[in-house]
Amino acid sequence: MPENFVSDRLARRQLRHGKERAIEFILFLAAFVSVATTVGIVVILLKESFVFFQQVSLWDFLTDTQWTPLFADAHYGILPLLSGTLVSSFVALLVAIPLGTIIAIYLSEFAPFTVREVAKPFLELLGGVPTIIYGYFALLFVTPLLQMIYPDLPGFNLLSAGIVMGIMIIPYVSSLSEDAMRAVPMALREGSYAMGATRFQTAIRVVTPAAFSGIAAAYILGISRAVGETMILAVAAGMQPKLTWNPLEPAATITAYIVQVALGDLPHGSIGYQTIFAAGLTLALVTLLFNVLGHMLRKRYRQAY
Amino acid sequence: MNEAAKVREIRALIKAHKRWDLVFAIVGLLALMVGVLTFAALFGQMAIEGAPRLSWDFFSQFPSRKPDQAGILSAWVGSTLVMIVTAATAVPLGVGAGVYLEEYAPRNWMTDLIEINVTNLAGVPSIVYGLLALGLFVYQFGLGQSILTAGLTLGLLILPVVIVATREAIRAIPSAIREAAYALGATKWQTTSDHILPYSMAGILTGVIIGMARAIGETAPVITIGALTFIAFLPAAPFTGDPPAGLFDWIMSPFTVMPIQMFNWTSRPEAAFHHNAAAAGLVLVVMTLSMNALAIYIRYRLRKNIKW
Asked: Cβ of B96 and A27 within 8 Å?
């Protein structure tokens, strides 16, 4: 018998074992792509922004009230883009939060089974409509409609873009809020009914407060969605950076600016090219902040019961 | 006498409170109606404006400076090709990652890190993926503004959707199935590939379809990588032309996609182009909605039929 004899069956098992390990490693690599993507985003944004901030001071970036990187008299103040982003998001939330919450309460506490079976897939479909379609709708349907009420409204404005964006994020807010409400244990509702409370009283005074952190998480994730939304604003709100808090005016958002630059033909490595990464970094930080906050709140409601 | 008055008072109180139930039920339905009406208005507006433009020519002609001769040939071909690359990226990576996280992953910091990343990536605005692709794929890797770049970008974008769907589908399989396979001497991978994956196929498919429906409507990241808005040629089909194109030459070709074509037409001032935009939007919305409806239907069937 040779010295390093391995029985047939053992050899087969080793081969099997090796193959198993190889497959596990390949699957791990697939899962690791998500980490690599995050690292890629962070590295790319920081790298290009770093070059940008060597030429523009952070102070100017945060306090200058003009954003004109493509003009001869270049100013690099993020405030005008930020104001457009915040105003449009605010309008969107004014639409999405009340409607989304009411729909969530209705679907979770009031709606008969059949209504819910129809409404939920429908809301999902509404959330699946491409945003460019909403942009078209905002520019060519909602704006003319609003102009009938308020004739001085310019063709591009933050208001109609914000309203349509709000309708777009209703399904998002309502489905997350509804999940939170359904997670409230039945015993709480039964206790409330036993005390003689009506459906409405139970929904408003028992279920909603109990699910509040989950509902708040839905709002915050909705905000982050609105802040990062691009095409509706690029189409319907115009592309002029303008420091304004008035939703009736046209103004560019951070995302619309990035689209505007990408549509042009800026040479790789120029300061104009780097501005979109600085703007993107700002956007990523703002949405990250809201996302982290939202997930923290969501975790809390999961642990509550 | 006093008793009767009290009872009446309480009855009135109960009635008043119950009225709120009714009021809220109506308010809730009205809020839902806002969604329904928006959808109807959106669809109606596009149908009225765009339907007259829908003809065979609209699908078989290139975009043009003359609105009534412009078509979406390069856009729908581009969208289809980009979707092929997207699916080829997102399906293996997403299903692989989902299987790893559910079946293989040990409980350690690395797994936690991956899970946190998947959740976080789902919340990253799509335009940031565009910036990633612009910096990484277009310039660092030198892939240019090609179908490959767009497909990879959208593939990464929908990865969280596919991963989450895969995990949910796998989690729904009772562990008795795994134990039975192990008891017969199957290895982990044999169990996974012969039992877990086939049984979770419908759930995974749902996630993939929803992800693809999202990818096909994404505009911002594709614009950010610098896709052109005016393309009047098709990528070379394999083995045609002179010298003959290779099997995968189309993958490096410049391109445009449906939503970009629609954006381009929407942002022109002439009303005639808006009709084209409406028609392109109609095609796009029918495509994404039928994909979503298919996914919802598969899930519905799944929920009804499978009983472990």
From this structure: yes
